[in-house]
Amino acid sequence: MKRFEGLRRSPWLVLVLVVAGLATAAAVAVAGLQPANLAYTPNSEGQVTNIDVARAWIKNYYGASGAATGASGGWSTDLNLDSNYAKEACSVANEGTNWLEARSKVKNRAIVLDVDDTTLTTWNYELFSNWDYNPSTNAVFVGLTGTTFTGNMFPATPCMLDMVKAAKNMGYEVFWITGRGDSQHNATIANLVSDTAAGFPEITDVTYSGATVPEIDAGYPMPTAIDTGHGGFTDGLFTKPSVGSYPAYLDKPEFCAAAIATSKSCGTIAYKSGTRAYIESEGYDIVADFGDQFSDLEGGYADKTFKMPNPNYYLP
Length: 316
Ligand SMILES: [Mg+2]
Fold this sequence. Notes:
Blueprint: H1 11-27, H2 51-61, H3 84-101, E1 109-113, H4 123-129, H5 135-142, E2 144-145, E3 148-149, H6 160-169, E4 173-181, H7 185-192, E5 205-208, E6 211-214, E7 237-240, H8 257-261, H9 268-281, E8 285-291, H10 294-297, E9 305-307
Parallel strand pairs: 1-4, 1-8, 4-7, 8-9
Antiparallel strand pairs: 2-3, 5-6
Helix pairs in contact: 3-6
């Protein structure tokens, strides 16, 4: 998974970001959410939230007060749908539905969705990892052990399933754009839609780290078929291409041309906005873009953006 490129490889920095995020959230509670200022330097202890306190508050927010973290902790407990997190996610989803209902009469209208913590909630992995991302253990939750599909572990984000189904019923086309890499493409469709939609055998249970949990097919509708221009994927889910495999539509100065010219990974805002531009160039009008990170939402090519709640990590 590429979603944690760079930043999440450094555990202490992640924790600093959690604290900075909370401090910023507190600072903008009245003014509204906005991207965090990562250069902010507290002058005193009182200007940041203690990391252990932040963890406790986030557990309370997810309705998992006192949940144990770590591989033998409470990660296998179902997501609490009565939590303040669930209520806030539902509030955004319902705002989205209202926005789409008011604009449902024109053809070729589309919505764009992020995956992690927008349409699938990764809270169980935060508990498992104690907010310390590791690509190998994360891949197990995504559904892969090595290259073998072993079953999905992320539930649908509260109320987002209803929102997407409603959008589909209103005639909207549905596309996903994720920072997960092409190597996780099929496992991602398997979690969002179903194992069989991704071409895998149906799996009913997942056993991992001493716990057996139901394998999750979130039940989203299949996205709208479109040629992603890489990896042979045409199912409407845009996973991130590997360096060296970027499609021509991203090779523009305003998107990924500089990264492509230097064989580097393209940044999230450029990759995602460039992909939205491509979708619009194929004849769709993106009426709404849903994401939990500001980097999912910046860069244009959407009439309105919807910020899903996520206090667990910050991806520029
Ligand atoms: Mg996300």
